[in-house]
Specification:
Blueprint (H helix, E strand, L loop, with lengths): L1 H6 L3 H37 L19 H17 L19 H10 L2 E2 L5 E2 L3 H29 L2 H15 L1 E19 L5 E16 L4 E3 L11 E9 H8 L6 H10 L9 H14 L11 H8 L6 E12 H6 L10 E9 L2 E7 L7 E5 L1 E2 L6 E2 L1 H4 L1 H5 L9
Antiparallel strand pairs: 1-2, 3-4, 3-10, 5-6, 6-7, 7-8, 8-9, 11-12
Helix pairs in contact: 2-9, 3-6, 7-8, 9-10
Length: 401
C-alpha cells in the first residue's frame, strides 16, 4: 500500500475516481448493446450464416448466396486502390511559398553567402539572395523530411492498417483508427572508430504511429451523435500477465497498483462479453466449412464455444476524454484549478487507475471512417446493413411465432 500512497495524493479519492470512470464505461457498454446485435447480423450476413430465427424446412435448399461479401470485397479493393496508388504517394510535403525558419538558421544562411572583394572587404548578400537561399534550404530540408515520413509510414504498415479500417467501415458502418501516438524505437547505425573500423551504435528515438482499433473494443459516449460533442471514449484491452508486467516497466504507469492487482488475482479477472461469446459461436459455424449448406449449430456447439479456455487474462480500460481537476489531483497530477475539467488519458485495471496523465486533443485520438453516417447514432451504417433487405430476398422467411 506504501507505493499507492507514494503515487496518489489521496488514495481513497483516486480509487473512487477509478470506480466512477468504470461505471461510465459500463453505461456506454449497456447502451451500445443494440448496435452490437446489428453488427452480429452484419457479420453473419457477410460470412453467409443464417440468423438464429431462420428455420429451413426439410427438403428445401440451404444455400446462402454471399452477395454482401462479394460487394464488400469489390468496394474495398477500389477504395484501397484509390487511396494508395501503386506507383505514387497519396500525400506530399512541400515548403510554403514564404518559408518561416528560425532566426539562428537565417543567420547561418546569411553567413554562408558572405564573400570578399579584391581588398578583402566583406560583401554582404542582399535581401533577394537571402530569400532565395532560404527557399533552397527549406526545399532541401523538406525532401529529407519526406524520406523520413516515407520510412515511418512503411514501419507502421500504414496501408494495411488503413485497409482494416475500411473493411470495418464497409462491414459495420464504422472503422476506427487510433493516432497519432508516439512510441520509442531503437535505431541502429554504424559509426567509425579510431582504428579505421566501424562499430554498431544504437540510439532511441520517438516515432509517430497509427493503429487500427477493432470496432468491438471501442466504447464511445452513446449519448451523442458526433465525436466532437462527446465527453470521451474507452478502448478495451485484454492483456496477459506479461503485458501487464511490460506496463510496469514504463515510467508513465503506476507499478505498485499493477503488482498488487496481479497478487490479488493470480488467475486473471477477464470475463468474456456477450458479443465475444456470440462471435465465438459464429466462428464455430463458419469454421466448419458448412456455411454454404446453411449450417446450424446445436446447443453443444454454442456451449463449447462459450466455454473456450480464456487463460489468465486481464481486462484493461483505456480512456481518452475529460475528467475533473479534483480527480486528477487525487491521482497525483498537478493541475492549475481543481474546479475545471481537463483532457486526460486514464488507464484502469480492476477499476483502479494505473495511469493518469494530461493529454491535449483527447477527442482527436480516434479517427472514424463512416460508410454512411447514421444521424441517429455516433456510429454509421455499413454496406451489409444497406444491402440487408436485398440479401433477405434470397433467404428463407423466418418463422413467425
Amino acid at each position: 500500500m506504501d507505493e499507492i500512497i507514494r503515487i496518489f495524493t489521496d488514495p481513497v479519492k483516486a480509487i473512487e475516481f477509478g470506480y466512477r470512470l468504470k461505471a461510465q464505461f459500463d453505461t456506454n457498454k449497456a447502451y451500445r448493446r443494440a448496435k452490437e446485435l446489428e453488427w452480429l447480423e452484419d457479420i453473419r450476413q457477410v460470412k453467409g450464416i443464417y440468423d438464429p430465427d431462420v428455420k429451413i424446412e426439410a427438403g428445401n435448399s440451404k444455400v446462402y448466396p454471399k452477395i454482401t461479401r462479394s460487394k464488400i470485397n469489390i468496394v474495398l479493393s477500389r477504395l484501397h486502390e484509390m487511396l494508395f496508388p501503386e506507383n505514387d504517394r497519396n500525400w506530399e510535403a512541400i515548403p510554403t511559398p514564404e518559408p518561416s525558419i528560425s532566426e539562428e538558421t537565417v543567420v547561418e544562411i546569411a553567413r554562408s553567402l558572405l564573400t570578399e572583394d579584391e581588398n578583402g572587404e566583406p560583401i554582404f548578400p542582399d535581401e533577394d539572395e537571402i530569400n532565395l537561399a532560404i527557399k533552397k534550404y527549406a526545399k532541401e530540408t523538406c525532401e529529407k523530411m519526406v524520406s523520413v515520413m516515407d520510412d515511418q509510414f512503411t514501419e507502421m504498415d500504414y496501408s494495411e492498417e488503413t485497409k482494416k479500417v475500411l473493411r470495418s467501415g464497409l462491414t459495420y458502418g464504422t472503422g476506427v483508427m487510433k493516432g497519432v501516438l508516439i512510441r520509442n524505437k531503437t535505431k541502429r547505425k554504424w559509426k567509425p572508430v579510431d582504428n579505421g573500423d566501424y562499430e554498431e551504435a544504437t540510439d532511441n528515438e520517438d516515432v509517430p504511429f497509427f493503429e487500427f482499433v477493432r470496432l468491438w473494443d471501442w466504447y464511445p459516449d452513446m449519448s451523442v451523435t458526433d465525436l466532437d460533442t462527446m465527453d470521451g471514449s474507452f478502448e478495451r484491452h485484454v492483456m496477459t500477465k506479461h503485458d501487464l508486467r511490460e506496463l510496469m516497466k514504463r515510467d508513465d504507469f503506476y507499478p505498485g497498483i499493477i503488482r498488487k492487482h496481479l497478487e490479488e488475482h493470480p488467475s486473471g479477472d477477464y470475463v468474456a462479453e456477450n458479443w465475444e461469446i456470440d462471435l465465438q459461436v459464429i466462428d464455430v459455424q463458419a469454421g466448419a466449412d458448412k456455411t454454404s449448406a446453411g449450417f446450424q449449430t446445436n446447443n453443444d456447439d454454442d456451449k463449447r464455444s462459450a466455454n473456450r479456455q480464456t487463460g489468465k487474462k486481464y481486462q484493461v480500460l483505456e480512456y481518452w476524454g475529460y475528467v475533473d481537476g479534483s480527480d486528477l489531483e487525487a491521482c497525483g497530477v498537478t493541475v492549475d484549478d481543481v474546479s475545471l475539467e481537463y483532457a486526460a488519458n486514464v488507464w484502469l485495471l480492476g477499476g483502479k487507475p494505473i495511469k493518469v496523465a494530461l493529454y491535449y486533443g483527447v477527442l482527436d485520438k480516434y479517427k472514424v471512417f463512416y460508410y454512411e453516417k447514421d444521424e441517429t447514432s455516433i456510429y454509421g451504417e455499413g454496406l451489409a446493413r444497406v444491402m440487408r433487405h436485398s440479401q433477405i430476398l434470397f433467404l428463407p422467411v423466418p418463422e413467425c411465432y
